Amino acid sequence: QVLLLACAEDLECVPGFQQKVFYIEQPFEFTEDQPVLKLEFDDCKGNNKLNFEVSNPDFKVERDGSLVALKNISEAGRALFVHARSEHAEDMAEILIVGANEKHGALKEILKIEGNLGIPRQKRAILATPILIPENQRPPFPRSVGKVISREGTEGAKFRLSGKGVDQDPKGIFRINEISGEVSVTRTLDREAIANYELEVEVTDVSGKTIDGPVRLDISVIDQNDNRPMFKEGPYVGHVMEGSPTGTTVMRMTAFDADDSSTDNALLRYNILKQTPTKPSPNMFYIDPEKGDIVTVVSPVLLDRETMETPKYELVIEAKDMGGLDVGLTGTATATILIDDKNDHPPEFTKKEFQATVKEGVTGVIVNLTVGDRDDPATGAWRAVYTIINGNPGQSFEIHTNPQTNEGMLSVVKPLDYEISAFHTLLIKVENEDPLIPDIAYGPSSTATVQITVEDVNEGPVFHPNPMTVTKQENIPIGSVVLTVNATDPDTLQHQTIRYSVYKDPAGWLEINPTNGTIGTTAILDRESPYVQNNIYTALFLAIDSGNPPATGTGTLHITLEDVNDNVPSLYPTLAKVCDDAKDLRIVVLGASDKDLHPNTDPFKFELSKQSGPEKLWRITKLNDTHAQVVLLQNLKKANYNIPISVTDSGKPPLTNNTELKLQVCSCKKSKMDCSATDALHISMTLILLSLFSLFCKSFP
C-alpha cells in the first residue's frame, strides 16, 4: 500500500491551521504594516470568535490571517509562534526565520522533519500530518489536537496509535478515536520535560491485523514562556583594580532559561537594577545587555579605593527573557564587586624622631615605631618592611614588623655597654612588601631617627677566664694552693672593690681567700670520689663588688685530678661452693678490679698463701690480666674452708690486697646441694696454722 501525506483541500476538513510550519527569509527589515505572510486557520465551524496571539509582541495577525509588523524591525529572532483560538478549536503555527544562505538547508530540514507542508502532493492511504501542541494548556481534557485520515474506507477498519506517550512510558498522554482517527491529548504537556513525541499510527481490520501502515506521526510541544531566567553559578564575585581605565571588564553574569533556546522565550537581556552604595557615582558600572559583561563606566580618578565609602559594591542584576520586553519573565542575582588596592600610598612615620631608653645588659623590644598607610591592610601594599640603614655597626639592634599593628618593633639583640657608649642614634627606613606603582615614590616621611639612651647599672664582676681550669694530682697535702682567680668589675667608672667566696664546693675540699682570690685545699683531693666526674672536680666561686646593692659574678673552676696508686685491688667473688663428689674440680674463676687508673691497675698478680700439711689441696692459675682460676687438687670432705689469696696491682709502688676465698664443700644428692654446718673437723686451714704456732711457742718458753 502507498502511504499518503496530503493537503487539507483533498480531504475532509481538519480543524486548525491548514499549514502549521512556515519558512520565510530574513529581510533586511520588517516594514511596519507590511504583510509578511498569510495564515489560514479553519475550525470547520465558521471560525466564530477567532483570535490570534503572536509570541513576538512586535507582530500581530489581522482578522484575515495576515501577519504584519507593528513597527520597523531589523531583528525578530529565529522563530515566531502564532496561537489561534476560536469557539470550537485552537492550534499553533510556527514561522521559521532564516538567512538567505540558510534557505536551502533549512527548507530541506523542514520538509524532512515535518513531512509535507502542503507543497508537494502524493496519493497515500493514510494521512498523518504533524501535530503541534502548545505546552501548559488548561483543562478540560481530553482535548482534540489533530486527526489521522485513511483514504481507503475498508469496512470494519480501525485506527491504532502506539509509541512513547501512548502505550510506552509516559503512558496515556495521547489516544486516538479508532473510528474517526481523531487524536486527543489527555493532560497538560511540559516542553521542558519532553519536547517531541514520535508515534506510529496504523489501520487494522476487525481481527486486529494491520492492513495499512504503520505511518509515523510527529507531535511537537510548542514552547510557552513559562520559565524564569535563573542564575545558577553564584555567588558572583568580581575584582577590579582601583584606578582602572573606563571600560575595564570586571566579570560576566550568565543566566539560564529552560525555555526553547531558539525562541524569544529564552532570549535574555541583562540590566542593573540597583547599586549599593551609590557613591561616588550611582552609575559606577554598566552591564552589556546581551553578553552580561559588567564593565566600569566611571573615570579612573573616581575609582579610588582610599576615597570610597567602602571598597565593596553590590549590584542587583536582572535577566529578562523575551529579549528584555516588558512581557518577559525575570530573574535576579547579586553581583559583589571588590575594588582591589594597588600600592599608590607609601608608608609614612607618624613622627620624625623616636626616643628609647634601655638599661645596659638588657635585650628585647625597646620601642615601637608607628607608621600610617592608606592602602588596604590585607595586602602587601599596606604591610611595612623596616630596615636600619645607619647607626648599627655592631649589629646590636634588629627591627621586625608587628603583623597585627604594622608597627616596627625595635629590639636590642646584643647587650649594650654603658661604659663603651651611653648613646646610640639609628636611622630607619620603611617600605611596603609590594613595590609602589611607577608614578609614586618614597619620600622623606618614610625615614625616621631613633635616639637611644643607655642607662648604667651595677654589673657583676667578671672572672677571667671563665671557666677556669687547672690540673692537680690527687692526695696533695691539705693547704696546697690550687689557683688564684682573677675577676674584674665592668663598672670602671665606679671604682669598686671585689671580694671572693665559695659558692658551690660539693665535696668540701676547697677554700678561697676573700681578698686576693687564692684557692687552697682543706681536705685530700680524691679522684675516686663520687663528686668527681670523668676525672674532673667542679666548684663555683663568687666575686662580689661593693656596689649598693652589690652585684655578683660567678666563676667556674674545673680541677682535673691525676691518678696516684692509692687503692688496693679488690677480689670477687669471695664465696664458692662445690660438691664433695664433684668430678670437675675447677671450683671458681676469680676477678680483680681497682678504682685507680691504668697503669695503676692490671695486669694483676694472683697468689696463694703457703699451704701446710703433707698434701696441697688447691692451686690458682692466671687466666688473663684480670682473672684467675682456683682448682681443687682432690675431693674434700664436707666442710667450710678459707683459702688465703693475695692480689697485687701494677702500680709503682704496687699495692697488694690479702683476702680469703670462703669455700663450702657440700653434699649433693639428686641435684640438691646441702651446705649445712658440719662438726668440729670443719675448721679453716688458717686456724690450724695459728693453733700449731701457738702450741709451739708455749713449749719453748
TrEMBL record:
Keyword line: Calcium, Cell adhesion, Cell membrane, Cleavage on pair of basic residues, Cytoplasm, Glycoprotein, GPI-anchor, Lipoprotein, Membrane, Metal-binding, Repeat, Signal
SMART domains: CA, Cadherin_pro
GO cellular component: adherens junction; catenin complex; cell surface; cytoplasm; side of membrane
GO molecular function, one term: beta-catenin binding
Positions of the Cadherin domain: 158-231, 232-349, 350-463, 464-571, 570-681
CDD domains: Cadherin_repeat (cd11304)
UniProt entry tagged with the keyword Metal-binding: yes
Protein's name according to its UniProt entry: Cadherin-13
Species this protein is from: Haliaeetus albicilla
Gene name as annotated: Cdh13
